[in-house]
Write a structure and sequence with these properties.
The chain is α+β, with helices and mostly antiparallel strands. It contains six helices and twelve strands. It has a seven-stranded mixed sheet, with helices on one face. Strands 1-4-5-3-2 form a five-stranded antiparallel sheet, covered by helices on one side. Helix 2 packs antiparallel against helix 3 and helix 4 packs antiparallel against helix 5. The structure holds 2-acetamido-2-deoxy-beta-D-glucopyranose (6 copies).
Length: about 290
């Protein structure tokens, strides 16, 4: 009978452990509340933010590259903001995403003078410190990353090399071959995961070189963050990337890596738009 004593407690322990391992599962969208102080209810700062919340979703949908920056008010009640939609989003989705972003962020970061919030189709950042508007770097305190905790099992070393090369090639294309500083990519892997998909994007006001530097900075974190992981993303207000073993893109793939032959050498990027029908997104246990 000794065995009958502990199944329930140990089952609970396992459940607690599993829950702790996936703390972000219900976290979408991802906000990073700021550290630049707070404002009071009904203040001029809040009124300026409310003006932004009306104007920015309208303005961004009339911008051809779905990007907008703006300043409302004067110091010390100045609010500056940046909004960017993903390269494969349309104006309707973009504008709706920003309306939601302003609503959500004011609930989760309610009285913070600065905050970032990240969705699949859009990002929004605002701050009382407008220095980010003239910077080509991500605001470190507003950046975040997401890791899919599932590990690749079949050939991790080759998977890591492939993902590194794919994200690199996607970053290269976004910086140098797209005026919108956006690219999507795809590579073949193996039977466990036939395809790996990627995305990289900068704000379109960056020069190609600035965009590449920004992306290189966050790509350098890949070994630390994503070794063996089947998916991940680093999100910043100036540049971001993501990779997954399922398709999450709404546009034709722009970068295609040829399959790696043998175990040595890196895959050769074969660039140029190709028409690939995106499959429905699956997985994504963030
Ligand atoms: C802010 O204004 C609203 C509506 O006028 C009011 O209900 C609320 O009490 C005010 N809050 C503060 C802190 O003044
Ligand atoms: C929105 O765009 C209009 C026209 O370009 C501009 O006058 C206005 O200042 C913008 N508003 C904001 C909040 O960006
Ligand atoms: C915009 O994109 C959304 C999501 O992909 C899609 O459902 C919608 O039909 C698109 N709207 C237009 C006008 O293309
Ligand atoms: C995945 O791999 C990492 C690093 O090797 C390890 O720490 C982690 O426990 C593994 N996670 C799972 C779910 O297997
Ligand atoms: C990505 O590109 C950088 C700069 O060109 C290079 O140093 C790095 O080795 C590349 N990484 C991979 C995995 O290809
Ligand atoms: C990408 O840009 C580079 C540098 O401008 C150019 O040499 C290359 O041909 C372009 N590739 C594609 C596929 O457009």
């Amino acid at each position: 009978m000794a065995q009958a004593r502990c199944p329930l407690p140990s089952l609970l322990l396992v459940l607690v452990a599993v829950v702790l391992l996936v703390p972000r599962a219900a976290g979408y969208p991802w906000q990073v509340c700021g550290n630049t102080g707070s404002f009071t209810a009904n203040s001029t700062y809040q009124a300026n933010l409310a003006l932004l919340a009306i104007a920015l979703p309208k303005n961004i949908s009339s911008s051809p590259d779905l990007f907008a920056t703006t300043i409302v008010g004067a110091i010390p009640e100045l609010v500056s903001a940046l909004a960017l939609c993903r390269g494969d989003a349309n104006a309707t989705t973009c504008s709706a995403c920003l309306v939601t972003a302003f609503q959500d962020v004011q609930n989760v970061c309610s009285l913070d003078r600065s905050a970032a919030i990240y969705y699949d189709p859009c990002i929004l950042y605002y701050s009382n410190d407008d220095s980010f508007l003239s910077s080509a770097d991500n605001v470190a305190s507003a950046s975040t990353n997401r890791i899919n905790l599932r590990n690749v099992t079949s050939d991790p070393a080759r998977f890591n090399r492939l993902v590194g090369a794919l994200v690199n090639a996607t970053a290269e294309y976004a910086a140098y071959n797209s005026t919108r500083r956006y690219a999507s990519g795809e590579a073949d892997f193996d039977q466990e995961y036939p395809k790996v998909y990627s995305w990289a994007q900068c704000t379109p006001d960056l020069t190609p070189a600035q965009c590449r530097v920004c992306l290189a900075g966050i790509i350098a974190e890949m070994p630390r963050l994503f070794t063996d992981r089947v998916g991940g993303r680093v999100l910043g207000i100036r540049c971001s990337y993501r990779y997954e073993v399922f398709s999450f893109l709404n546009s034709p793939v722009m970068v295609q890596l040829a399959a790696e032959s043998g175990n040595s050498g890196s895959p050769t990027p074969a660039m140029g738009p190709t028409s690939v029908t995106p499959s429905a997104a699956g997985g994504g246990e963030y």
